[in-house]
Structure formats: structure tokens, C-alpha cells
Amino acid sequence: MRFRLLLVGVLVLFLLPSPQVQAESSSFEEDFTLQWSHDFGDAYITTAPLFAGERLFVRTSASWGGSSVPTVASFTLEGELVWSESNAHSTHHDMAPLLHLMAGNGSCGAWPEMMIVGWSDGTVEARSPSDGTLLWAYETEQVTWGVTGMMALDEDQIIVPTRTGLVSLCASDGSMTMEATTGLGWRNGVTVGAEEYFLGDESGVLWGVAPNGTTRSVDLGDGKIRHAPILTSAGLLVQLQGQQSSTMYVLDLVNLSTIQTLPIGPSPGIPTAAGAFVLAFDSEAIRSLSCSLICEEVDRVPFLSNGEIGFAHDGQYMLPYNGNEQGWGLVNITEYGRLQVQMVTTGADGYATAAPGFTSSVTHGEMLAFGSDGGVVYVHATTTKAVEPALEQNVETFDWVSQGIVFLLYLALGGAGVQLLRGNWASMLKFLSVYMLLIGLLVIDQVAIQWSQTIDELGTQSENDEWDPSWNESWRGTQIVSITIGGEVHAAGGFEGYTNALDLTLAACEELGVEIETESTRIGTYVLSFDGETGEGWEYTLDGRLATLASDYSTIDSSTRVEWSPVETR
Amino acid sequence: MFQALGTHGPELSPTMGLVLDVLLLGAAFWLLAGPNRRSVHDVVLMAALVVSVSLIRVVMQPLPNIQPVTVACLLVGAQLGARRGAAFAVMVTMLSNFFMGDGWWTLFQAGGWAMIAVLGSRLSLVVDGAYNATRTCFASLGSAFIFGLVVSFSILDGTFGAIDFLFYLANGLPFDMLHALGNLTFAVWFGAWFSSILNEQASLESIERAVVDRHGIDA
User: What is the pTM of this model?
Assistant: First the structure.
């Protein structure tokens, strides 16, 4: 009897994670209902939708191999599309957050209410929020990409982190008043300090740029700075993203010397100041840090998120779990910096890096907008005046498969428990096997990816380090891509700063003028063809060793050679 | 697993593909051919088994590495003997791959499942008509890894080193474990039932005994 009770106890332990999720039903799910959604098709939403006035602005980024063109769209709060502008010259990564400016004036002139859009082809546009009319535009330098980081407003100047540096544009007419050159940047937002602007680059260098364009810098080491630094009482907070892990630096604003460092996890997202604390997150956890005299980690909760985090209702924050159908984390930070994280479902629950958009108004209540790599924006509100089409959308977003699997899990575990109490071991094994199989099917993708990455890290590098004499000598020590199409080798090199094989390949294709077709799957991005040639599939090597992971999951270093060839030529 | 691991060895020309199909089909007929004439019931049962198990395999294709064929091969081998078990394995592989994709890997899949059918015939999963559930469960777990190993040989085309192959095998372990879990589920839910269906048919042993007895009387 005791043995049976013990086994029942074990079974109950198995059940615990599920009821816990139920018990943590958040105020979001109780208070918010889906009002409407809009499908942008084959596109990503990689930066937060933005509420401004009585409008919602959403920008999309092109998906790899997709046919859609990056777009900025404006909707009424009821979901009616007001205007939409696309950029056919975009180079895919349109993730610079939109910057909304109220009307104002300064020493360089007056300006109306504007929406500032930074594009990946280097263009900076000022558009009228009401009808999308182009007010002015300014071209910045494009080196594969253009503007990908967060812009900022400094009095009457719009401070734009470009691919190669920083420019200051007069808000009234877009005229350039300052230009400074830094290292190549990527998603490197700018912070406006008391006397200078701060931004990082892909070489791990933190730059301080004075309003007159003079620069100073400090090299933090091997890594990338992909966020706007945060000004705290303890100093300037900067994340240096490394290959396997990352480091948070606290710098002295006077001489940019390092005051302290804190270890954080791999692929960190864009941290944010949250009252007296800083919220940082990466592939391991969400962390709260207190930065008064020094910065110290107060609390951490295991999580996986690599993009943005945004303000939500009731002083809480929300960020997407960057995994398959995991939902969003609703983060409550206590007055002592302790974290309480609840998982909620929003509709945009797949892979995602964009923060939610949030607004609160008398007429529409509190509203939250969520976007993901699925290219659909879901708008929830505290009001309950959803119109008929919205009801239809609500039905569509009910995930029957997930609910069915959860039901089966309960059925299987319940059945096992009943059979255990009846002492019928064979029947208990039947139900348990179904339970374990379902769990296996649910986790296999992530387990396989993690396992392959572990195996990859254990693997010894191939001795095959042959240098192709046709390659440019200046490519030595840089990232190189070679693609064999129809027996002809296309090679491009001299790349730096890419962290995975797919991004590097896409950059090389751009330079070579090779058309690449890809397909996103649950275990990564699959290359279907180069220049329309599909063959029996494509495979690639990393420094001569056959790769075992999807190319977007293959991490690369600063001198990796990625060589693509059709399967049949191997 | 991906790109490289999603491939299954060299591409076959149409002629080589045809030769491979003829060889596999020939092997299946040779395995089925024997000194004793099969009754219509035997032939219909085997055909029904092949078609239904192939259909189940095709339908379950979206589930990663859930292979109902493995347990079926074990039990067909155990009940009908190694030859018919292997023939069953070859025919199911050919028929299901006709829908799921045929190629060099078909040879290794057929070989892997045929080997499992032979193992099924040697592991005493059914003794004197009595189905041994425990043995079948263990056999179904082990056969997943054996099948995974045999099928992995299809990647070897002369350019793959031993270390690379070991890494390839290691990469596939999570999927092999899922295969094992799927096998166990099939075995505990359907093993006894499937075995009883096969048991209704006279075993080779009993047929041979009947033939010997008849000759004994004639003598």
C-alpha cells in the first residue's frame, strides 16, 4: 500500500507543472480579450508595434526567401488599415524601432507630429502619422545593412545610429548637422547622455560621440554590442555579446574605464531600465539588477528571450519567449527587485523578438499589441466590445492541437493513476507510455537542437584548412562563403561580425547577386535553392567539416569558412 | 539532422533506382518462395498486413521517427518466421517509400527492418503460441537503436570519416530514443492483439510438421 501511495505521489509530481500554469492564470488573460488581428503574410515583426495617438503603427521585416516587402502600416484602434508604406530596397533586417515625435520647434526649425522610420537600406524617413505622407528623407551609408538600431531624440535633433556611425538630423527638415564614424553596427541603439551620445558596434567597441562629432571609444574585447547602453547611477551599462556567453560591463562615464563586470547568458536581448532596476534577459534567464553604487543581480528566472522587452499594464513588463509556441512572459518586478514571471498566450506565441506595444486611453481602455516571426499582429484590449469579425478571429486562434495534446496528457496520466490504484501494472504501462511519448513529441525539436549544439561543441575541428588560391588574400582571417552552383564556385569574403552561418550566407548572396530560397521549419531554416538550383538538397561545411545543424543554428567565429554544395556533388 | 543529415547518401540515377527496386522485390519473392504452397488465406493475410502497415507508416509520417513498422516486423518475424518477416519488411518499406520518397536509403531501411524481423524470430517473443509482452517491450526498445544504426550506414559514401560518422550517430540519438518510446507504446497497446491476428495463421513449424506426418503415414 505504501509503495502504491509513493507511486501516486510521483505521478502527482509529474502533474505539477501543468496545474501550476493554470494556477498562474494572469491578470492579462482575465482582463484582456483579443480585439482584432492583421496578417502581414510572409513577414516578420521584429520590433514592437507602437501606439501613438489613436493609431497603431506596425513595421515588418522581410522573412528569408519570403516574397513580402518590409512595410510600415498604420491602423485605427479598431483594426482598420489607414495607410501602409513599403521599401522595395530594404535588405531584410528592418528592426529599427519606430520613433514617434510630437510637433515641436527648436533652433533648426519647427516640425509637425512625425513618425521616424529607419530602413535597412540606410534611408531615414519622416512620415506624417495621419496619412503616411513623406515629409523628408535622408540617406545614410549602407554596408549590407543600413539603420537597424533604436534612434533617439535630443531636443530638436534626431540621433540615428547608422551602419557605419552616427548622424544627427534636424527634426524640421532632415538636414544633417553632425556625422561621426564608428565601427560597423547592428541593432546598436543610441543613448543620449548629458554631454555625448553612446553606442556600441559589432567589434565590441563602445563609442562616445559628442554633439560636434568628436568621438572617443573603449574596446571591451571580443564580442558585439547590440543595444542602447543604459545610464545608471553605477555607470554606463553595456552588454558584450560573446559566442557562448556574454558579459555585462559597468563603465565609468568620465574615462569609459570598466568599473565592474557581470556574467550573463548567451544571445542577450535589449535590456531596459525598469524603475530602480534594470531588466536584462538572454537565452538562459531574465535578470533584475540593482545599479546604485554598483550593479548587482537581485533575482533571476529561467527564460529564453533574445529581442526586446516592453512595458505592459499594471507596471508590468512583457517579453516573448523565443521558442516554438511558448507564449509570452509577463514580468512583475517587486519593490525589492524580485521577479515574478507568468506565461501567457497572446496569439503571437511562436518565435518572436519584438516587445509588445502598450497604450491606455479612456475610450479604448488598455491595449496591448503583439507581433512575432509569424507576421501577424494581435491586438488585445481590456474592453469587451469586440465586433463580429474579431469573434471569428478569436475562434481561429484557439489552438486545437495544443489543447488536444494537453487533454491527452491529462487522460494518459489520469489513466495511469487509476490503473496503478487498481494494481493493473500492464495497463498502467500503457497509459504511461502514451504520456511519455507525447512529452517526447513535444520536446524533441528543442532537445535535438540543444543536443546537436552540444555534440558540435564537442567535435574537433577538421584539419582540412585548404586555402583556395582563387580567394582574395585580404580575406584571410575573415568570414568567407563559397557556393558551388552548377559546378561553378561563387565565393565572397572579408565578412565580419556574423554569428551564424545563415546570416553570413545571406550577406554573401547579397554581395554575389545570388538568389537564395529558404524555408523555415520547426528545427531551423532550410536552404532550398541557390539561383533556383535545388538539386537533391544543399549541405554546407564549416571550415571543412560537414555541418550538423540548421544554418541559422550554427554559430560561427570570426574566420569561419562556410562552403555550400549540392548534395549530389559530395 | 539538417542539410547534411537530412540527406541519405548518394543520389541514384533512374536506372540504378530501377535496379534497386528489382533487387528488393526479387529478394522479397525469394524469401516468400518455399517448398510449401501458400494458401489463398496466407497470401491475402500477408498482402493485407503489408498494405495496412504501409498505410499506417505513411499516415504517421508527420510524427518524427515514430515507426510502427518496427514493432510489426518484430512480431511478424516472431509469428511467421524469419523469411516471411524479412519479406514483409522489404515489401512494407518499398510500398510506403513509394509514397514517402524512394532512394538509396530504401535499401538500408529494408535491411534494417528485415534484420529486426529476423531478431524477432530468434528472441522467443511467442513461445507455443503464448505472447511474451515483457520480452516484446525490451525487444521493441532495442530494435529502435539497431534500426537507427543500420539506416545510418546509408550516409557512408566514401567521403565520410569514422569520426564524422560517430558524430552523425550521436546527433541522431534523441530521435532514436523517440523511436524507442514509440515502439514501446505500440508494443504495449497493440502487441498482443497484433500477435493474436498472426497466430490465427498456421505457423511454418506446424505446416512442416503436418507435411512430415503425412509423409510418415504414406510410408
Answer: 0.50
